[in-house]
Structures are given as C-alpha cells and as structure tokens.
C-alpha cells in the first residue's frame, strides 16, 4: 500500500530524480486548449532548465508522466493518487475542469505533494478549498470577470445584459461580472441564467430579449463556455445583434474557441486572456519554439504549464531538495518574471500566482494576417488589479 | 339465474380500435358444470377468455364471480379469486422444470414469492403436492426436465397441471386438446372429467367429440355474439349453429 | 402444375404434417378437407414458403421451388388467400387491392373487382380491418384475382360469408377455372367443396388419409361429416 | 405580444430538429423495430460532414444538404446489411446496444481526426439576412429551417401514407410475412428505409451546422431528449413523433421565456411530460397499445 | 429448411434469451470458483493499484444490480446511474453533515436510491423491452438535471468535495486499507444479489421474465414484482454508488450522467447477461482497461470500449462469463 517514503530535509531528491505529472484532458473539451501539448510545454521547460544549469542542476533525471482524466473527477482522483504514489511524481500540473481540480487539490493535501493548477477557473482553489500544497497558476473566474467587466465598461459600453449558464461556474462569473461592472460605473440592465447543459442548443429566447431591454444594453456579456459559447455566438450573429448596437463580451474564451468560431463571427468581441502568444517579442519567441515542437501556436495554458514547470524546477534547484514543504517555503512570496508571468508573484496567503492579464479584442477578419493571430490586446491589466485580494476563506 | 351462476357476464363487450370482438355477451356458468365455448375462428372465444380472466379490460359490460363484481380486475387478482386458465398457445416457462412450474403455481397464493431473502430451497415444501399433480397428468417421470424439452402433448398436460395447482374454483381451458394425438385427446378428456369434480370448467374446444363427451352446456359464439346456448345435443342440431359453425348447412337437409 | 412430395411441417416440436404428398394439375380445382387443426392451413403456408419448419419438396410446373423465398413464389403466379384474410390495418381497401404486383397473364382490373364486389367499392377508402369479416374475405379473394395469380391457394374462403356470398364465391372460382386458373382450396363446407372442386384430399393427423372424387364424397357424406367431427 | 410570437417561432425551430430526428427514429423503428441509439451520432456526422466538405473540398451548404444525407443514407444501408440485419431476429435490445456501442465509436473517430473543439460553419449567404414578419424580424435561416422541416415532414408523411412506396413500407411493417407472400421482397425495402432514416438524421445535422456548435458530442445529449419525444408521441407513430417533436420544442421555448427563474423547468419539462404521458397513455399520445402482456 | 422469416413482432419476447447461461455446474466446481473468487478479492489491492481495486468493487456491485434486472427480470435499465448517483450524493451529504461512520452513510445512500427507485420504477415497469430502456434513460437524465440545478445541495459542477472516510476514528485514508474495510460490505451486497436470484422471489422473477402473461395467470402481480426487483436493484446499485463516493471522497455530476448508465450496461453485457458473476468480471475488465487506457496516451477510449462492446454484441452475446461457462460445459460434455 501506502505512499513512498517521505524524504526528510537531509535527503536531496527522492530517487535522485524529479518527475513532473501532467494530468489533464486529452480527449475531451479541453484537449486542444491544453491536452497533450501541455506535455510538450513541460518538456520544453525541462530542456530549458537543463540547458540553463547544465552540470549544476540538482539532477539530470527529470521526466514527465501524463494521464488523461477525461474531465471526470473520479478518474482525476485515481490518476492523481497513482501519480504521486506509484509513478513517483513530485508535482502535478494543469488539471482543467473545476470538479477534477478541486479533487486533485484534496489529493495533494493528503499526500503532501505539490500541485500547480493551471486549467481550472474556480476561485475555490484559493478560497475555501485552498491548501498548503496547491498553487493556482494561470487564471480564475475573478480575473476573467473583473478584467472584462471593468475594462469593457470603461472602454466600450456601460449598459450590460448578462447571459450565463446556470451552474456553479456561470453563477460565479455572473456575480463577479456584475460587481466589476457596477464598480466601474456601468449597469447591468438584465441578466438571465440559461439552462445548463442546454440540450436544445437554442439561446434565441435570451438573445432576442437583449435589444428590447430598457435602457438598451451596449454589451451582451456571455458566460457560456466551449460548445455553448459557440452556440451563443452563432445565434448572436444570426440575430444580428451587433448591427443592432449590442456588442459582445465573453467571460471565458480561449484562442481555440476563436479558431472554432472564426474571427469573422467574433470581430470586436472583448474578453480577458491570461497570456497571448503574439503580445510581444518575448512571447513570440516562445511561440515560435513551441510551434516547432507542437505544430501549433501555444494557448495561455501551454505557456502557463511551461512557466509552472520551470518555476518549480527553479525552486527545487534553489532549495536543493524536492521535499514538498521546503519547496513550498521557497515558492511562497516569491516574485517571478518569465515568459508567462509578467510582474508575477506567488502569494503566500492563498497560493494565488498573480501576474499581468490582458483585455483582448478579436480583430476583424480583414486584419487577420497570419494563422492564429486573432486578437489585439486593448489593455494590460496590472497584476495587482487583475486578481482578487486573498480570501478570508482560505486557511492554509 | 345470475344468482346461481358461479361465473357470469352481462353485456360483455370488447372493441379493438373499432373492431368489436366480443359483443354484448351474456354468459352464465353454473357451478360444477362443464361449459363449452365453440364458434368459428375469430368468433371471440379467446377474447372472451381474456376478458373473464382480466387479461383484457372490457369496453363494456360486467363480470361476476360468485356474486362478486370482478370487472376490470387485473389477471393476478382474478387468479387469486380462484380462476385458473390455460392458454390456447402453450404458455410455459422454458427454463423451469415441470416440477418447478407446478411449485411456482402452488406457491402463488402463499406470498412466499415475495421472500427475496430466503433460499429457493424453501420451495421444496411444495414438492410432494407437485409430484401428486404431475402424476395425475402423467408427467411424474418427466418432473425434472425443463419444459422447453417436453413434447407438445406433454406441455398441454403440464398446462393442465399448473392450472390445477391453483386449486381453482373455475378452470378455464383454451383448446386443451389442440395439437394432441388421438390417445392424448382421450387421456385429456378422461383427466378433465376426473378433475371437474367439485369444480367448474369453461373450455374452448373445436373438437366436437370432446365437447360432446364433456360439456353440460355449450355456448356458440359467432362474430362476438352468443348465437345459441344449450345442451350439446340441442346445440349441434340447431340450424343456426350448423350454418355458422358446423358449416354443413346444405348437407343437413 | 403443383406437386408436393413428402412434406413434413413442425411448430416447435409439434409435428403437424407428416410426409404429405399430393398433386394438382393445371386447370383443376382441388380441395383439402380435414378437421380443425389437421394441418390444412399449414400446408398452404408451406406451399407459399412461409413456414419455417418444414421438410420435403414443393414443385411448381416441374420446377423445384422448395428453396425459393415467398416473394419469388408469388411472382411465379401463386396467390394466397390466408385463413385470417390478411387484411392490412394500415392500408385502405383500395391499397389492399393494389399492393401486390400483377403476376399472371390475366389480372383483374380494379373496376372489374369493384363491379364484382360492390360492397368493397362503397368501403374503398376505409381501413381494411374495419370491414366486416365477410367483406374482408371478399377483399382477400379479390386481391389475388387482381394479381392475376395462376394458382390460387384459398384457405377457407367461404368462412363467415352469408350463403349468398358463398354462392358468389363459388361462381367466381368456377369462372376463374374456366380461364385456366388452378385452385387449391381448403374447405370445411363439403357441399360447397363438391360444387366447385374436381377432386378432394382428406387430411387427418397431418397425413393424406384419402383422395376422393366428387361422387365418392357425395356418397360418403354422412361418414365424412362424422369423421370431420361435425 | 411580439415577444410571444418570437418565442413561439423559436420553439418551433428547435422543435423542427426534434421532429426531424424523431421522424427518422420512428421510420426506422416502424420498419425494423430497431431503436437507433446512434441517431444522434449520425446527426453529428451530418453536421461534421458539411464542415469537412466545405473546408476540405469547398463544397457549399446547398450541395452538402444533398450529399450528406445521401452519403450517410448509404452508410446506414451498409451498416444495416453488415450488422443490424443479423440482430433483427433477436431481442430488439441487442440492436439498441449495438447502436450504443456504435455511437461511442463514431464520436471517437470524429474526435480523433478533428478534435473536440467546435468547428466553424457559416450560414449560407443566401439565407444570412432576415425576414420581416410585421411584428418582428426573423433570421432568414430560421425561417428556412422551419419551412424546410415542415415540408419534409409533410412530404415523408405524404409518401408514407399516400404513395405506393409508403403503402409497401406500411404493409411490410405491419405484416412482413403476408407482404412477402404477395410478391414483395420485404428485405429489399428494409435496407433503404434504414438508410432513409439515417439520411434524415444526417440532413438534420447539415441544417444544424450553421446554427449550432459542430463538435463530436453535439448529438450525444440531444438523442436522449429525442427518445423522450418519441416515447411521448408513440414510438411507432410517424405523426406522433413529429407532432411531439414540435410540441416539445414549443414547450421548452415557452418554459425558457416565461419560467426563466426556474431553469430546471425547461430542462426537465420534456421528462415530466413523458412521465405524465406514461401514466395516462403508456403507449404514447399517438401510439398503439402493445399486445396484452 | 431455413426460411428467411423475420419476426419483428419479437418485440414481445421478454429477455435476451439464449444468453442466460445459468449453467448447472457441479457443486464442487461452484465452491472452487467461489474460493478462487474470494482469494482474488483478498489479493486484489496487492496486484492492482488500490484505488483501482476499490473502483472495481464498487462497479462490481453496480453491474450485479443491473444484471439483476437485465438478466433475471428481463428489464434493461439504461438509467441506473440515477440510483448509483443519488446514493453517492446522499452518502456524501450524510457523511459530511452528519459525520456518520461511512458504512451508515452508505446505507443511507442506498436507501435513498431505493426510495427514488419507487416512482421511477412505478412508471417504467409499465413498459417492457426497449421502451423500458428508453424510459429509464430519460428519467435518469432528469435526475441528472435536478442534481445539476440543485446547487445549494450538490455543489453543482464543482462536485461535493471532502466526503469523509470516517470509521470510529480508524485511519482509512490509505486506499489499501479502505479496500479491506469495504470488501465485507461489497461481499454482503453480492451475496444479497445472489440470494435474491436464488430465492423464491428470484424464481418468480425468472418466470416473469420468460412469460409474464403466464405468471399473471398464476396469480403473480407482475408489475409489483418487477417494481420490487427494480427497487432492490436500485438499492444494490446505491450501495456501489455510496461506496464509490466514499472511495473517491467526493461526488461529481458524472455519477448521474447517462454515460455512467451506459458503462454499467457495457460491463454487464461484456461479463455476460444473466450470469451475475459475469458482471463482477466485467467490472474488473472495464475498470482496469480504462485505467490502463488513460495512462496509455491513447485518445479515444470510447473507440476501444465501444468497439469491444460492438464485438460482444455481434459475436459473443454470452459475454465473457457466459462464453467460458458454455465452453466448460462443452468440454465437460465431450469428456463424458
Ligand atoms: N389484441 C387484439 N387487437 C385487435 N384485434 C384482436 C385482438 N385480439 C383479438 N382480436 C380480434 O378479435 C376477434 C376475436 O378473436 P379471438 O381470439 O377471441 O377469436 P377466437 O374465437 O378465440 O378464435 P380461435 O378459434 O381462432 O381461437 C378476431 O377477429 C381477432 O382478430
Ligand atoms: N403458431 C402455431 N404454433 C403452434 N402450433 C400451431 C401454430 N399454428 C397452428 N398450430 C397447430 O398446428 C396444427 C395444424 O394447424 P393448421 O392451422 O394447419 O390446421 P388447419 O387444418 O388449417 O385447421 P383449421 O381448420 O382450424 O384451419 C394445429 O394443431 C394447430 O394447433
Ligand atoms: Mg381462440
Ligand atoms: Mg386453417
């Protein structure tokens, strides 16, 4: 049974090696957003780390384990345990889907092993479900809502109609959005929770309502994600809401979604991104290297996986041991700067990794000059504003 | 009349989407009698059986069993009240042995069938009685064979044994001799005449010689209606019966 | 025209036909008589190719059709009037009549059918199963006439018909015969049978017990009736 | 008032998809007694096929609207010949299970090749405008879908009730043996009918492509609602399935519009209706009673 | 002669017949198999990853519950996730809020599942065969939506986290020990299923499956028997679901999704319908296979499970256990 022997502070590395585990969705809804290419990103991080430290590295034996959790929390649970116990994994990375992410946080806590969540959006990871071994790396619902809600209100329009899927994520997003909009001087003139999952795939009831509200909303804020987002946007265009003066802001959108919907369908839409590959030369350099390996442009999740793996290795290097408690100590409060983390800081209070975020707007088709270059960044949201203050719910 | 009848129907009617299979049938089955139902194919005999046993709900009319209204009761309750039936097309449990069939029938009134926490071995308590019944229909030596392996005539005999196991007040037999060879027919006739003691038997039978040997009363159905009713001799001589059923009208002059 | 050799048929384990052999020549009307359950209908189903459990051979015009599926047999000119009349609930009377393709040289036109059976004409748009039993019987017979079948397999076509209609059916069969149609008729009604048929087979317990001609049937009528359980 | 009219119209449009899918299920069930679990997967293949045709061969919507149903119909026929056919003589549950397994396979095959991300598909330019109905505007495409679906359902109903084809199909369904005895090769009709039912699913898929997210799972949850729809309408009944399809679309839309504070209502209403129907008429609103048990 | 008579009217036929292998193996064979089974069960977490072994136990109960209906009552439930999942949630809630030891929480969950099975079963047993499958599927989906919407209780998408594994202070956080803690409960559940099948009640069920009309004529209220079987099956599925919740220490909506029902049927068909122990075997195979696949890097798990399933349905309808039993039978017959 039980876990491997716990290393004391004196022992350098368990088994003289470091194993990074990428646990994510490799066949479902998030498989393109992160999926196997996250493994590629982590491998890049290992290569860069090894190249940087050469013989001085704590070990040359750094490997990656990966498993597909199929977005099922029970699978994520078994896989996470198995990774920590049997595969000698020191750090689990990624884990999209909130329920799976929260479950793995439990596992990490119990096994006293590190876990950097990248793929999931729930703020519970740094709220009531936070723990000493879990770090939330890339984004969360607050960041998405606050960035888009605040900046769009300031820059594009004050009156909002919010459409959200009626489940945990959607409700959280709606609340955060409403708060951010009101705080920025805007007004939510209407909001509706659409059934989730919406089997009929039809949102017309809500979309038709929007232009008729009084006052007429300037922005439709949709919190739908994935396929539902695609449905909303298709129908938004069908009903020609943009022509009727209702702009579009999206709560959660990934580069892959824009690719699915085509920039033509989304031109002018605003959303918050955690990272954009063509933001500056540094990002672009990383994106080019990534493309050579993976054959596609990186999403923010890929960059974040890279960064997370790298920062972990750096921390181990600094601590001289892979002992989880020692590494956590080294990470807490650390300020970091790398290709993903701009003005990055690993908060000690709740293990939220804060960094600059970006309000992005989808370009019109005519301005798209190269594949995957779909957005322009309207505004950089400073790290200090991008994320919420540490929550009182979190007791590490 | 209805007062004395054990099983009686008044104005019994059944429609199948516009088609009236049983039409205003009045039927009185006297206690301790053998009552035969005859009539052309499709006259509604089986449908009438299904109505009497609750397998079909009547579209109209009412059914009384020993003075009690049983109209519209589900089949299992009709069975509980002492009405057992056999099926025109042999209807058994292919995987169960002959003995298990009879045991299952014997168990039915006891409520043992609900005991999902007890061993099926408890059903052993019915073995003795089951074997008696099997012996009665000449199936004792085949008691352990799964019913699927029985010859057709044996299955008919098993049908009879099952019906008897319910110790019914009224026994409804749908073509009990259909598909039997001559000896089997004789044996069945003899068996029915034995078990009819203290019981009321209603049977559908195309074999007129069987009807002649057993029936006290014959009801002839045609197109869902009662054509004629009376003792066998009288019915078989009836012109209408000869026309409608016996079918030798012109020859009978 | 039709030759059956050593035909046996089963329902599950119950054997209902035992080595039946018989022959029907072209242009003949032949009846099968026998008690209920003797296997007459089963025999017709075997000829039609609809009975799964059978052994033996069936030949049509010297050709072995034992292995032909039912629809191919029909195309060779076999017309079946099933014992249950075979009315389709989901088809109207007219559709019931026009459903089968014509398979013989002398198909009846729809007009001719309606002329012969005015009752069908008045009910032509009703669902077939809404017709009275007698009307359904007419429909079943009219249907095979409209197909122009050369060999009619009629299963108790007079059952449930009023005497008048019985006569009419007799006339129809006789007329069909004049046009060279062959008929294999299952009939309980001996009087009717002797009126239209040339020869008779008596089926008992799945065997051909006797072959008789008309005069023989008439002279032994009482004995036969008794035997048939009537 | 115009809001009500709009919601009603939208309900009918959603209902059009239910109706088309239920129609295909009913045709297949009526003929083969097969409940085709893979119906949703074929719907998905229809939509995906349109996308692939467009992006990989430049075939426009209108051509896809013809090619996909025909192509999938042929695939369906091959499938019927290869496996379905062998199981029709067994308990119908086997074909249900078979098509369930098939659903998993089809979904994953598409997933393997094209990933799970939804694929883009634009509304055909001819239909991208909107139509004014006096009280309100409506996307031309939706008007087209509704019109097309209604026409198609009427046409199928007409074919199955008024033509020789329908007559043969109905006869073969009702009494296959008897029909065979009248010189009709029932088996030869069964395969095309299966193909036709599949083709209908494919057609619904192509129609959905410009309106709905095109991804490997788009049919997966939908099919369960469609099952409830056909149970409500009466599984064997063509008319019942179509009517229930439109009806459920309407009820859901109204529920969404007027009971939006109870989102649970519009999601579960179809199942609640189904429960009611089961209590009141176990065979479905337009279904026939099964033989007495 | 073989004629090509197709019988679509076969819809009336009750159970997938020809599958029910209840082979009458000699007594010593059965005891030997039982012994082997127990040894394997006792050894399992040493050979497999303990968490996987725990999953196998839970799924074994689930499969046996489904087979109790499918194989022995002739009803294919395609919505058993409703019971598995409901129990999982109730178990989780009871364990979290009442802090009961987990066996009691699981019992509460299983009872809740059984209670839910009453109305669903009442409506569903009005239909048979394929209709039953569709109706159960639809009702299960309804339960799914309700759980999804009832966020205040079920935590919606996030799932019910932190279900405790409380057992009078004994530390069971290690799956290895937890396996042995639940093994007796699972064996009890399996024994209960076995007992039900081999009880007077079970005999009646088989009779109902093979010939419901006959059973009614014998005075058995068929609907009520079916409903009782449905509820019992819901209870056993609930046992599995509750243990699953405690095993994973959380509950997510997946436990109610129709794919979970589908997986249960796959497990049963793969193992062999109407064999009872086939379901246990099927659970072992499917859970182990999925575990392996998710580490294999192969992206299309459905392709494999679906493919295997299609093969089984088309070629080996008896399933693993049934085929093995048939083979053993034939070998034994040949030797004789
Ligand atoms: N479930 C049903 N649906 C529609 N019609 C039915 C049904 N059951 C019976 N019928 C019709 O009702 C009529 C009477 O049928 P029934 O079976 O009672 O006849 P029967 O007198 O028993 O005939 P047989 O001597 O052939 O057994 C027939 O025309 C039959 O087609
Ligand atoms: N589907 C069936 N299953 C089992 N036995 C059957 C079936 N159909 C008919 N039989 C039996 O086969 C035997 C022959 O039946 P068949 O219908 O051929 O007789 P028949 O001579 O046409 O009788 P009838 O004069 O009543 O029409 C009968 O004993 C009948 O009970
Ligand atoms: Mg009858
Ligand atoms: Mg006959």
TrEMBL record, chain B:
InterPro entries assigned to the protein according to its UniProt record, in alphabetical order: AAA+_ATPase, ABC_AA/LPS_Transport, ABC_transporter-like_ATP-bd, BCA_ABC_TP_C, P-loop_NTPase
SUPFAM superfamilies linked: P-loop containing nucleoside triphosphate hydrolases
Gene Ontology MF terms: ATP binding
Keyword field: ATP-binding, Nucleotide-binding, Transport
Domain ABC transporter: 7-248
Matches recorded under SMART domains: AAA
Pfam families given in the database record: ABC_tran, BCA_ABC_TP_C
Recorded superkingdom: Bacteria
Record bears the keyword Cytoplasm: no
Protein name: ABC transporter ATP-binding protein
Species annotation: Micromonospora parastrephiae
From TrEMBL, chain C:
Family annotation (Pfam families): ABC_tran
Keyword set includes 4Fe-4S: no
UniProt similarity note: Belongs to the ABC transporter superfamily.
Keywords: Amino-acid transport, ATP-binding, Nucleotide-binding, Transport
ABC transporter domain mapped to chain residues: 2-230
Membrane-spanning ranges: none
Any GO MF annotation of the entry: ATP binding
Annotated source species: Micromonospora parastrephiae
Keyword ATP-binding appears in the UniProt entry: yes
Protein name: ABC transporter ATP-binding protein
Automatic annotation (TrEMBL), chain D:
Key words, A-Z: Amino-acid transport, Cell membrane, Membrane, Transmembrane, Transmembrane helix, Transport
Pfam families linked: BPD_transp_2
Subcellular localization(s) per the UniProt record: Cell membrane
Parts of the chain that traverse the membrane: 12-30, 60-80, 92-110, 141-160, 189-210, 222-251, 258-280
Recorded topology in the membrane: Multi-pass membrane protein
PANTHER family attached to this UniProt entry: ABC TRANSPORTER ATP-BINDING PROTEIN, BRANCHED-CHAIN AMINO ACID TRANSPORT SYSTEM PERMEASE PROTEIN LIVH
Family: Belongs to the binding-protein-dependent transport system permease family. LivHM subfamily.
Protein's name in the database: Branched-chain amino acid ABC transporter permease
Source species: Micromonospora parastrephiae
Lineage: Bacteria, Bacillati, Actinomycetota, Actinomycetes, Micromonosporales
Automatic annotation (TrEMBL), chain E:
Transmembrane segments annotated in the record for this chain: 28-44, 56-82, 102-123, 177-197, 227-246, 266-286, 298-316
InterPro entries: ABC_transp_permease (IPR001851), LivM-like (IPR043428)
Sorted UniProt keywords: Cell membrane, Membrane, Transmembrane, Transmembrane helix
Superkingdom per UniProt: Bacteria
Keyword check for Iron: no
Subcellular location: Cell membrane
Annotated membrane topology: Multi-pass membrane protein
Main location: membrane
PANTHER family named in the record: ABC TRANSPORTER ATP-BINDING PROTEIN, HIGH-AFFINITY BRANCHED-CHAIN AMINO ACID TRANSPORT SYSTEM PERMEASE
Name of the featured protein: Branched-chain amino acid ABC transporter permease
Originating organism: Micromonospora parastrephiae
